[in-house]
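Table S4 entry, GDSL-type esterase/lipase family protein.
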Amino acid sequence: MLKGSLAVLGGMLWTFTGFAQTAKLDSNYVNPHYEMRLKEFSAQPIPKNAVVFLGNSITARGKWAELLPGMPVVNRGIGGDITHGVLARLDDILAAKPKKIFLLIGINDLSRRFPEEVIMQKYEQLVQRVKQKSPKTKLYVQSVLPLLDDMLQPAYLKNLNPAVTSLNTKLQAFAKKHKLTYINLHPVFADASGQLKKEYSLDGIHVTDAAYPVWVQYLKDKKYL
């Protein structure tokens, strides 16, 4: 009886500890920039059969429509966004029943030291939302891009590449589980050491304007576009 009670107590302590750890996570995504972008999006309706690029500042900086003329391309990137923020605004995108969504999100989650299981839980919710709200939309899961430590200024961004590699491994398995297309961008953007290639690096985390045409060409070569 005592043994059983201790087991229950241990489970309760584990639950409370897990809750406390989760409660410490900075999962806030609402800020003036996020709200401004939402207002911009509301004034830019998503056209029929749209191709949506969805993510954080790395996506937001891309001139996707210019790079893909004649295609109904929509940029839904918000600087600083995390998986929680993408999930919160996903319904507005899915209401338009887009043809394709190219999702790239996770580096800001990692920089806030979110456990991988928390990130993957949000990915699970994202996929389930797409299946429920717009089942004909084809969702592409893009790998999180590597960083270039030598160029990074914020200390909290340094030495994250092992976490990026680990998360991408999980994302690849996740995409396979859900029968989604996983797009491995590392052959395009990573050097032999796993760092972001210097010629494509703006500041160690963001990519240069010259990187986006290469990115789009890779998507075309792989028949994703």
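The first strand starts at residue 51 and ends at 55.
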